[in-house]
Amino acid sequence: MNWTEDIPTDLRLFGRERSREIDHNTIQDFGIGGFTLMEIAGRGAAQFIRENEGDKKNGLFFCGKGNNAGDALVVARYLSDQANHNITIIWAAGDDDLSEDAQKNHQLLKNLNESGVRTSFLNAGDSIEGSHFHYIVDGLLGTGVNSELRSPYDEMVSQINHLNLPTYSLDIPTGIHCDTGNVLGTAVKATCTITFGTKKLGLFLNEGPAHSGDIHFVQLPFPKRYMNQEATLINEKLVSYLPKSNRQADHKYQDGTVHIVAGSEGLTGAAMMAAKSAWKNGAGAVILYTPKKLLPIYEVALPEIIKVPVGSEGDSYFKTDHVESILAKISDKPGPLVIGPGIGREDETLEFTVQLLRKFSGFAVIDADALYSWKELSGIDSKKQKRWILTPHPGELKNACNQSFSDDYQRFNIVKEIASKRGVNILSKGAPTIFTDHQTQSYISEYNTQIFARAGFGDVLSGTIAAKLAVRRDITDATLSALIMGYLAFKQKPNGEIFEPGHLL
What we know:
- Helix content is 38%, strand content 16%.
- It has 16 helices and 19 strands.
- Strand 17 and strand 18 (434-436) form a beta hairpin.
- Residues 249-253 have low confidence and may be disordered.
């Protein structure tokens, strides 16, 4: 069975339409009613808020008219009845024409009032004393919003943000687009977002993370067969679902050789970082190919790395007549190839890259300057491309595919499109990092990747991926392992050198 089938619901990401489809199928086909789902969602949110805020607190709830307001009303009922919270609900546009389930929960709250549990109801424009309240619940608008907020919702969002209280947004902060994470004119700046049933893509793209705060997931009883995600989160929890794979070899060249084609005059540092990274991350042997003129530099700096000089004494960059000697060496000691860090953009070097990859049939990590051969590489046998991973940063991606994008959702879709059309694996570096494999399974980093936006990170990452490929022999597994290892290493040594993951996984 494919390991991805075991990925838990809280690591799966969904857009608005797919989330609605899951909700509809659960209600209409499976038979769990919408009112029941709302009850489970609201109860889970109330439990979380109670854990954070305690009992006997004052809560201010901002409610619209739809099911997002219905969720908030369930939360209000549980907190007022079971945690002795004094709840004040302020309606954005009155309490008439509520959705059917929201209206039912409104009536339940009024029933509690009749039994002595006190809930106050206000309207937009009524005076509020912010110092009276301990927290806010944002139940204004949910995942259905796709245009800029209008009055009175935009004013109420401003009011929430101005009150500067701990704010819990339900499902998604009001004003954040469910798919793109873009701000729709204005948006609630939540302390925490309590999302229900499906984690929304927009919580992790563009401005979504800055507005969502901490994300708490409340699972709903959606049948597993409906949960076909659009992407998977890359985080520490994913580690336990990756296949276990440890190198077991009788000698250094068995299941662990990494070949690195990198460096040119003035750009030898990139080759060094890629080679050191592959070595430190478990490769049994790292073979660095270098134009012969550069060999003395590497001999001093890389004692643990095997160096193979190619060409004549005066060669300072890779040329087409180096291809066959490199292929012969790789054939003798098979293993994944890293090509690109610091190789330069000489016309002959770009042609060398194409010729080498056209004849090489193993796993290849194609990075940095090698990506300038993107167009020519696209014409190579698709069976070979399935064993490649291309690792562009946003600028390289724009240049390579000749497509512009202005936000991370567009980047996400471009990466998926390229992976699907070419059958290649794409690791789009950036914040967040987006990875789509040749089977068009997509992954998005949950942690802050801006910490890695510095020179040399890409070279280190390429070496790490190749080392993992040498042992695991699966691009998806190796790439995810390398990304998570980099983050874990940074957490251990946040002020140190460019991450050196070592044997964390």
